[in-house]
Amino acid sequence: MPEAKVVPNEITYSAAISACEKGGQWQQALNLLSLMPEARVVPNEITYNAAISACEKGGQWQLALNLLSLMPEAKVVPDEISYNAAISACEKGGQWQLALNLLSLMPDARVGPNEITYNAAISACEEASQWQLALNLLSLMPEARVVPNEITYNAAINVCERSQQLERGLQLLWESKERVDSLSVAYFPWALARLSVHDPDIISAAFDEVALKLSASQLAPQELSIIAWAFGMLGINNPTLLQALVIQAVPQLESFTMGDLLKLVWGFAASGVDVELPMAIQTDVITRLEQVDLESFSELSRNAFLQETLGLLWASNFAGCCSNKLLASARLVIRQAGASMDRAHGPSSLPAYESFGELPCTEADLWQPDGKPQIILDLPDRLAIFKPPGWEVHSQHTDLQLSSFLQATLGKHFAIVHDEEHQCGFLHRLDLPSSGLVLAAKTYEAYYDLKVQLNAGEIARDYVILCHGWVRPSLKDIKAKVYWRGLLPTIAGDQGKPSWTRLKVTAHAWHRSTALSLVAVRIATGRRHQIRSHFSHVGHPTVCDGKYTADATFQSDQDLCARNFLHRYRLTFKDLAGKDHEVMMPVPADLMISLQRVTARDIQSAETIRDWVDGNSLRSWQDYTPLILDFGQKQADTL
């Protein structure tokens, strides 16, 4: 503009800052704001509002509040848009107290809150599970002459679900039907799935309405994707309705965001219905991956895009239709993003790749009295660690943190091991009472390379468990869906996230009068407490599991085993050059002792148990021979 001899004014700056806000470039927005005094341009409320909104989208709640506090000094009066943006910034930053404080200050500032204000404040209560405060805000809206809308009830139901107040959430759902004039088609299915409603009549009625709307009008991409997600979560088997979704979705795939595409393909994968939509979505996603320039994205937008791409990989793989082209395109873009993060964190995050050979590491000591973690395989950019029982991978629920061990071992040489947003480099978790192998990355490129492998089903995770009862050898798979809330046990059944546990019964045994089975397990999905909840679901809970057995059983089990008998004994993965690596770890000493205390039911079981105790014949899950029962045993099990 100066070159064209045009002088920028406050409208020019406001528009430019707003463009940066919409593009996720909060630093550029603040830089423009800071240049205005030098250009002798006075910012107005529109300028500040756009800058605060830019901070909100960038997750910078402190800067948003600072801008709001500077407005009176600049003789600019904050309006409801200013407060709304600041409250929303606090909500996204998990600062619910500050969000509610801003709401309480609005009357003194002679600014009237509107539905956007209340919606943001109620949403802020979700992260901290402050359901009482959220419902109180909802009850105050009529007094403030503000009418709750669908977004308001969305937020309130989310808070109730997060706080495990499912009945209250259901009450809000019925209330919203009476109080909100126009609800979207996706609202009811979404709420039923969110609240894990099991009543078949209610679910059927909701999806009958969906079918009616689909036949009468064209739905927006966001609505279609939410309906598909709810379809999968609720475990509905209705191919006709899914086909109607496909007919509407395919012509407008280009209008779907990556997040909407993820919900859509996830819903179809979770439903288990065979349709062609996932392949159509993959073609669209491949085109997007070939055209994307992540360098132009803000950090938040880039991370969201990476997670959505990984989610699409997972859903396509779970549906059994992940094409080689999608995998190659996703791997290239995601690894490049990781390499870019490494460069941004400086030379310490970039290992020297002279070779991908195995580096010296400590040999695992199964009889180590302290039960400390040990590095089993150390490569230049990734490693496999043995996690003893009682150690947590990363969450700060106990003093014994595997992340702290990794940080102490690697020091400050690798930035990712100190980055909590990237799980301190860990690819997956292992329950606190369990033992076994865990993968971790030393660089962002390795982290995202392994994430691609994990979501594409290229990493094998094999376990051995001891569980109650004589599991019939014909049981090969458990495919119950799972869901969980907070620290409550995971629920396995016909609703929730799709989960798949593969198993081979390798031995039957007794301990005193208790029947037991030794089972080799491979997980195709990695849900919270998946193995434990799945085996409990089929009536064979793992030994010494306080969460998934009755207290009397748990107390009795401690005579045999002092902790949950679940051990991840094998991992396979590839390095950055594509070379395969296999890591195996025999059962630790405490589990060996437990196995020595049981009595085998037959000769094959005795040999298998002896092999596990000796630790000399570890192999891939698929190479284990399932237990073969003789005719008498089959008859006894039937009786």
UniProtKB/TrEMBL annotation:
GO terms for molecular function: pseudouridine synthase activity; RNA binding. PPR repeats lie at residues 9-43, 44-78, 79-113, 114-148. Residues 385-537 form the Pseudouridine synthase RsuA/RluA-like domain. The keyword NAD does not apply. Keywords: Repeat. The keyword Repeat applies. Gene3D superfamilies: Pseudouridine synthase, Tetratricopeptide repeat domain. InterPro entries: PPR_rpt, PsdUridine_synth_cat_dom_sf, PsdUridine_synth_RsuA/RluA, TPR-like_helical_dom_sf. GO terms for biological process: pseudouridine synthesis. This is Pseudouridine synthase RsuA/RluA-like domain-containing protein. It comes from Polarella glacialis.
